[in-house]
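--- STAGE predict ---
source: upstream dedup step, 1 unique chain passed
mode: sequence only
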Amino acid sequence: MPREVTRVTFSRIVDLSQEIGPDTQVFPAYPKPAFTQWTTREAHGFLAESLFLLSHTGTHVDAPWHFEPKGKKLDQLPLETFLVRGHVLDVRGLGPKALIAKAQIAKARAQLHVRVAKGDAMLLRTGWERRRGTSAYLFENPGLSEEAAKELVRWKLGLVGIDTANIDHPEDGRYPAHHTLLAAGIPILENVANLAALGASRFFLIALPLRLKGATGSPIRLVALVE
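--- STAGE serialize ---
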């Protein structure tokens, strides 16, 4: 049976990914990405690089296994999980270290004026991307409350993303949003970029990870096909 992706028509492509390189911002516990020239044209006839980076570098997906001992690993997730209709949930206006509340996401959804179907992706636009490159981007971001995360689960979403490095409140070491979403089998996209280019447009989302066996996550090239 043909899947919906075969019927998608679009007018433009929007890249929602951060560039990955030596200057990509990562948490202190993570190593900086490093690309090392491995072959030379003189010795081998071609160039190739070795890549050293964490699986949660840049724009990436968290598989349930990242936090949940019984959760699926990256390679166990169905491919169609990452090829879905997408929506931008506008929750801008929050200050540093604010909680994104259930009432706020409910209000933002009411403003979408489109049907949100089971398995769709919801990308939370906090506006925090403008802080990228500063300490505040990593340590002062707005974070999703546990009640709001439970509400997203009730919406029966397939993916949830956010334009911050951490979907949780930066000072909540219990990671309630991560646990709530991943325990429900909903992968999380973090470090989503360029949501301003989407606005209220309707789009189809491509969020394909690398096929990494047994991994907790993967960098992705996140792309929106805008109708």
